[in-house]
Design brief:
Length: 387
């Protein structure tokens, strides 16, 4: 008999959004008519600047990439005025989250994060045999469903090694103002690493965007992660980065694969990073698409949660009894009344994301798409919820 740790056997694999090709295959639909609003990808596609950079870099593909990612780190360093030694590149920011967990947490120790927080925090913790301390989300008020930072502070125990904070958070779209995060950072014990996940920060209004890199200068126990998968439009390439002081960076660097970010991804990310017009376009398209979804949902009387990301939670069924909500662990669980709605949307060629595995039964997460994609979703929704 092969042996694997119980904590590995207990992991429920990450459930991504259903790929377009899979839906086409399973339901006999025409791929070109399927709308995917399930993975918070950039509906505008990828920037032409990145496409051109990849085409130029393709000639080098027989070679290994630069294992130190000099060009990309230089670009990040210049763009945000950071020392290069503070930057760790990742195969997606997911890689950074995992590296941090492996570097700082061992079996039997604990991590702290909020209910309804990004699924990877639990997965990364479980992968090293750590105990996840899941802190109940705020129940009411403008931050409902969001992180309760005071409760998270209280939840830290002697064996806690990492606290994860996603801001904005996925899948809730909730956002903590900079002042609240700063107060939190001031109070977290310095022996605990705070992983502050900014995958959606580019979608925040400029005036509400926290200066997280300034916090990194003040707090040696802070690691900020950023992604090229969302606003930059490079999800398929897998590239992100972490910013922390050298003591943290040095540890991540010891654990990472020697060539963890591939050559095309490095080239594309350098180009995308300096493509100001692209980011501006992505930001504006998201604002407009979000307004379209909000107005469209209001028009058919469906509730939604205000979101600071490029997606929003839509309540498609009344919440089930708390027992079902508490016990539901994976999408497709019989207890999630959103699943039949999800299925009917699939049949109409619209892929969204069930969130029963986030203990959000009755809700579906919908990514902001192009105007016509949002319209297709809004047109399909009333029938799908039985109106
Ligand atoms: C999408 C996402 C990420 C990771 O994205 P990568 O593609 O691995 O860079 C990280 N955190 C949150 C909250 C996300 O939603």
């Amino acid at each position: 008999m092969l042996h694997a740790p119980d904590y590995v056997r207990a992991i429920a694999p990450y459930q991504g959004g259903k790929p377009v090709s899979e839906l086409a295959r399973e339901y006999g639909l025409d791929e070109s008519r399927i709308v995917k609003l399930a993975s918070n990808e950039n509906p505008l596609g990828m920037p032409q600047s990145a496409r051109d950079a990849m085409a130029a870099a393709a000639a080098e593909l027989a070679r290994y990439p630069d294992g130190n990612g000099f060009a990309l780190k230089s670009a990040i360093s210049k763009r945000f005025d950071l020392p290069q030694e503070w930057i760790t590149l990742g195969n997606g920011s997911n890689d950074i989250l995992e590296l941090a967990t492996r570097a700082f947490v061992q079996a039997g120790e604990s991590t702290v994060f909020s209910a309804h927080a990004f699924a990877v925090y639990a997965l990364a913790s479980q992968a090293v045999g750590a105990r996840s301390i899941v802190v109940p989300a705020l129940a009411s008020g403008p931050q409902a469903y969001g992180h309760d930072l005071d409760a998270m502070l209280q939840a830290i125990t002697a064996d806690t090694r990492i606290v994860f904070v996603a801001n904005p958070n996925n899948p809730t779209g909730t956002f903590l103002p900079a002042a609240a995060v700063e107060r939190f950072l001031d109070q977290v014990p310095t022996r605990v690493l705070v992983v502050y996940d900014e995958a959606y920060t580019e979608y925040l209004r400029p005036e509400e965007r926290p200066d997280a890199f300034a916090w990194v200068r003040r707090f040696p126990n802070l690691l900020v992660s950023r992604s090229f998968s969302k606003a930059y439009g490079l999800a398929g390439l897998r590239v992100g980065y972490g910013v922390a002081q050298p003591l943290v960076t040095d540890l991540l660097n010891r654990l990472r694969q020697p060539f963890n970010v591939n050559l095309l991804a490095q080239a594309a990310a350098v180009a995308a990073l300096s493509d100001g017009p692209w980011l501006e376009q992505a930001y504006r398209a998201n604002r407009e698409g979000m307004a379209q979804l909000e107005a469209g949902l209001d028009a058919i009387g469906v509730s939604w949660l205000p979101s600071w990301g490029n997606f929003l939670l839509v309540q498609v069924a009344p919440p089930p009894g708390s027992g079902a909500a508490a016990s539901a662990r994976s999408p497709g669980v019989a207890g999630d009344p959103a699943m039949p709605v999800y299925e009917r949307l699939l049949r109409a060629g619209v892929i969204v994301r069930p969130v029963g595995n986030y203990a959000l039964n009755g809700w579906l997460r919908v990514s902001v798409g192009l105007p016509e994609e949002n319209a297709t979703f809004l047109a399909a929704l009333p029938a799908a919820i039985g109106r």
